[in-house]
């Protein structure tokens, strides 16, 4: 006895429709016709029709008094108010000058090396400046491992906040040089500053 379910199954799967391979051939044929048409269209069109054509009779314009291009306006200079204030109140001490000051202080008699008055210059160390407070805190922690005590100060610069990692104040250039050298021996680059 023949199984009836196979015949029913054949009828349900679209026995009367167009087979899939026919649709595949029709799609390929349409794609080939479009491709050939585009290729032939490119050959039939005039080559270089989109490019400008030179005029052999054209002459250069006579020189005039007016410049063709106007001078560009001067670019706006950014305002660095913080740095202007810093320049007036804080001066970076180069390493050579710092070591010379420290040697000069060491050569002075003991009574002259007393801590300077509160009106005199203050000596600070800036170990870094960051846009992120977490970076500044990480450097502060790294400095703490060296035995030095640092703090994070924030400053507003052009609407943004900068976090500076600073140490000090130090009473004189000798203690400043020693602290800076201690940081350098732990791989921390720092800048010595004299504040007024």
From TrEMBL:
Residues 57-69 have a biased composition (Low complexity). SUPFAM superfamilies: Sporulation related repeat. It comes from the Bacteria. One of its GO terms (cellular component) is cell septum. GO terms for molecular function: peptidoglycan binding. This is SPOR domain-containing protein. The chain crosses the membrane at residues 21-40. Pfam families: SPOR.
């Amino acid at each position: 006895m023949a199984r009836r379910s196979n015949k029913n199954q054949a009828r349900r799967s679209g026995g009367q429709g167009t087979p899939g391979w026919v649709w595949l051939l029709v799609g390929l044929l349409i794609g080939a016709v479009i491709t050939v048409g585009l290729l032939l269209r490119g050959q039939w069109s005039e080559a270089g029709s989109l490019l400008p054509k030179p005029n052999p009779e054209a002459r250069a314009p006579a020189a005039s008094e007016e410049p063709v291009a106007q001078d560009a306006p001067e670019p706006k200079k950014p305002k660095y108010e913080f740095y202007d204030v810093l320049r007036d109140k804080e001066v970076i001490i180069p390493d050579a000058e710092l070591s010379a000051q420290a040697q000069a202080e060491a050569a002075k008699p003991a009574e002259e090396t007393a801590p300077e008055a509160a009106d005199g210059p203050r000596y600070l160390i800036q170990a870094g400046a960051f846009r992120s407070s977490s970076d500044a805190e990480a450097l502060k922690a790294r400095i703490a491992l060296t035995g030095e005590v640092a703090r994070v100060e924030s400053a507003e610069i052009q609407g943004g906040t900068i976090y500076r990692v600073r140490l000090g104040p130090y009473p004189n250039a000798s203690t400043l040089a020693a602290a800076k050298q201690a940081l350098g021996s732990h791989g921390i680059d720092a800048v010595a500053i004299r504040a007024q």
